Amino acid sequence: MQIRTHLFHETSHSPSLIDLVGAEEARSIEDFCFIANPYYPTPEMMQELVDRFPTLIKSYPSSNPNLAAGRLGQVLRVDPDNLIVGNGASELITTMCDVIDSVAVPVPTFGEYLEKIPPERLSIYPLSADDGYSLNLDDYLDWVAEKRAHAALVINPGNPTGQVFGTSEMESFLKGAQHLDLVIVDESFIDFAGQVVPSLLPVADRYSNLIIVRSMSKHCGVPGLRLGYCYTNNRYLLNRLRRSLPTWNINTVAEFFLEMLVNTQAEYHDSRRKVMRDVQSLYEQLRRLDGFTVYPTGANFVLVRIDADYSARNLQMTLLSDYRLYVRDCTNKVGMDDHHIRIATQGLEADRRLITALTEISANPQRVTQLSSTG
Fold first, then answer.
1. Which DSSP string corresponds to 128-151?
2. How far apart are CA 180 and CA 164, in angstroms?
3. What's the CA gap between 172 and 176, in Å, rounded?
4. Using an 8 Å Cβ cutoff, are 118 and 264 in contact?
């Protein structure tokens, strides 16, 4: 198998498997970089999308963004006037970062924020490896005030750490941050944080400087549709964001998927519970392995530190070439060392394959260095 390793140096994200090894090889590789929901959309929904595809691809999407916002608002039970639907959360992050004067960002974090905020407007708050890269909200708020930043980012649950804050902790932070122009709370993984989702959406209208960002790729399992949204009652920010977006910023397939959400909420929440079951099982199995430190998680992925004498890149290449398993090497995460991998659950059966591979490597760590020297 030929692996185009140069692609790792050309992006702050993980190269797609198709780009990395080609479409044919990718079919037989389990992708644990892929943070999504393996149980949703349901097979019935997928078939309906296939059946509708010839019509959808020949149709223009709506030029009225209120229609998509209305459908999503019905699902989320929020005011659709405060919703903006985007071509993935990355489109909204890019647009939002253009209107921020200065923003504090804890690292390591989702690289899109670091890339889209101009360096002169970015204040980086480094998290300590000794504390497991955990974020203390009170300390962070004090630091933000000291740096005189105008805005602050919190990703909840954290990416790549999986650290999660409850709604009471987040509301306490918001009350202490009322002097800021903007608080960005990225909740892209929040639906996997508990049976009752600890989202700020139900209380968001109380905080005029709050904007919630979510990627639907993660919890709905549809990264190819490029769907995300933000929610805020800040009219000034809403209007600026809306003026910045193109008229047809989401496609017809994505619009139809939003329609499907309305009538498949029971199926969605069933899938969400299955993912939480799977990630807990994955976490417990990883904890039993020698040579690794496993971080607690409130997301659908697990962060793992390699305690043995080999790097995350070497382990990643070993798993890919020898076991046909692809995990996220977190070395290119700003603020993180070269001994961390992130594993997104792909269902019980796939997760067991990964555990088997890591068990073999744990018992014989020399095979990592042997393979890395030939790969």
1. PGGGTT---HHHHHHHHHHHT-SE
2. 22
3. 6
4. no
Non-local (6+) Cβ contacts of 252 within 8 A are 56, 57, 59, 60, 61
Domains delineated in the chain:
5-41+267-374 (3.90.1150.10), 43-264 (3.40.640.10)
DSSP string covering 341-363: EEEE---HHHHHHHHHHHHHHHH
Report pLDDT digits (tens) over 64-111.
999 999 999 999 999 999 999 999 888 898 888 888 889 999 999 998
What's the angle, vertex CA 258, arms to CA 255 and CA 264, rounded to 5? Answer: 150
Model confidence at 369, pLDDT cuts 50, 70, 90, reads low
262-271 contact pairs (CB < 8 A, 24+): 262/71, 262/74, 262/75, 264/41, 264/42, 264/45, 265/75, 267/40, 267/42, 267/45, 268/40, 268/220, 270/39, 271/37, 271/39, 271/40, 271/42, 271/221
Structure-token pair, residue 45: 């929904």
Q: Which amino acid is at 36?
A: A
What Cα–Cα distance (Å) separates residue 362 from each residue in 302, 308, 321, 337?
Answer: 17, 9, 17, 20
This prediction has a pTM of: 0.93
Q: What is the pLDDT of residues 32-61, one digit of tens each?
A: 998 889 999 999 999 999 999 999 999 999
Cβ(66)–Cβ(115) below 8 Å: no
Give the CA distances from residue 99 to residues 96, 150, 215, 244, 253, in Å, rounded to whole numbers and listed in that order. 6, 11, 20, 10, 30
Report the residue count for the chain: 375
Helical segments of the chain, H only: 17-21, 23-26, 43-57, 65-76, 89-97, 111-116, 137-147, 167-176, 216-220, 235-244, 252-262, 265-287, 312-323, 348-363, 366-374
Q: 279 with 299: CB under 8 angstroms?
A: yes
The predicted-structure confidence for 282-322, as pLDDT tens digits, reads as follows 999 999 999 999 999 999 999 999 999 999 999 999 999 99
Helix (H, G, I), strand (E, B) or coil at 336: coil
Cα-flanking dihedrals φ and ψ of residue 319, to 5°? -65, -40
Task: State whether residue 188 is helix, strand or coil.
Answer: coil
